[in-house]
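step=encode ok
step=design start
structure_in=
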C-alpha cells in the first residue's frame, strides 16, 4: 500500500510541471503527457475503488468506536478527490484538443489541486488508518485489496506501472507483489520494468530520473 501511495503522490506532484513543459501547439508531446495523466487517473481511481469496496467496510465493522471519525474523514476525502479527479479529466481533454495557454493553465491548476488533496488524504491514511488495517484485516483481505488494484491496470501497462512502483520501491515488496504471477512475468517484469519507466519518464518528465 505504501509503495503505491509513494508512486501516485510522486507522479501527481510532477504532473503539473510535465504539462507546463509542453510547448503551445505541440500536440504530439501533449498526447504523450495526456496518456500519462490518463494512466495516473485510472490507477488512482482503481486504488480508491478497492479501498471503498474492500477496506473501509471491513474496518467500519471492526475498529473501536473512537476510530470511526477518522474513517469517515478518509471516506469524505475520497469523495473530494474523486471530484478533483473529474476536473482533471475534463481539463485534460480540453488541453488535448487545444494545447493552448488557457487550457494548459486550467489543467495545471486542476492537477495542483488534486495533488494537494491527495497528499492530505494519504497522510491521514498512513498515520491513522493503515495501522488499524494491519491489525484488523486478515492476510487474505489485504491480498484482495491489492488484487483489485492490480486487476484495474490494463495488462499492456502492467510492466510500466511496476516500473513506476519500483522507482522508489523496496525490491522485496515488489517481489511479493509478483508472487502470484506466472513464472515468466515474475522473472521478466523486474528486469524490464525499470527500463520501461525510465524511457517513459524521459518522455513525460524530461529526465529518466524525475
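sequence_out=
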Amino acid at each position: 500500500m505504501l509503495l503505491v501511495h509513494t508512486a501516485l503522490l510522486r507522479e501527481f506532484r510532477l504532473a503539473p510541471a510535465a504539462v507546463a513543459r509542453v510547448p503551445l501547439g505541440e500536440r504530439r508531446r501533449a498526447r504523450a503527457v495526456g496518456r500519462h495523466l490518463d494512466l495516473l487517473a485510472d490507477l488512482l481511481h482503481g486504488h480508491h475503488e478497492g479501498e471503498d469496496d474492500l477496506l473501509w467496510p471491513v474496518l467500519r465493522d471492526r475498529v473501536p468506536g473512537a476510530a470511526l471519525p477518522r474513517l469517515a474523514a478518509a471516506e469524505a476525502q475520497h469523495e473530494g478527490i474523486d471530484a478533483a479527479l473529474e476536473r482533471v479529466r475534463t481539463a485534460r481533454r480540453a488541453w488535448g484538443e487545444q494545447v493552448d495557454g488557457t487550457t494548459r493553465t486550467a489543467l495545471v491548476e486542476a492537477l495542483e489541486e488534486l495533488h494537494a488533496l491527495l497528499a492530505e488524504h494519504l497522510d491521514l491514511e498512513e498515520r491513522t488508518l493503515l495501522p488499524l488495517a494491519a491489525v484488523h484485516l486478515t492476510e487474505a483481505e489485504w491480498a484482495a485489496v491489492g488484487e483489485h488494484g492490480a486487476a484495474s491496470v490494463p495488462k499492456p501497462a502492467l510492466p510500466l506501472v511496476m516500473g513506476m512502483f519500483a522507482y522508489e520501491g523496496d525490491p522485496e515488496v515488489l517481489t511479493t507483489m509478483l508472487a502470484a504471477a506466472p513464472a515468466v512475468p515474475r522473472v521478466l517484469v523486474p528486469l524490464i520494468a525499470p527500463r520501461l519507466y525510465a524511457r517513459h519518464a524521459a518522455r513525460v518528465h524530461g529526465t529518466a530520473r524525475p
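step=design ok
step=annotate ok -> The chain has eight helices and no strands.
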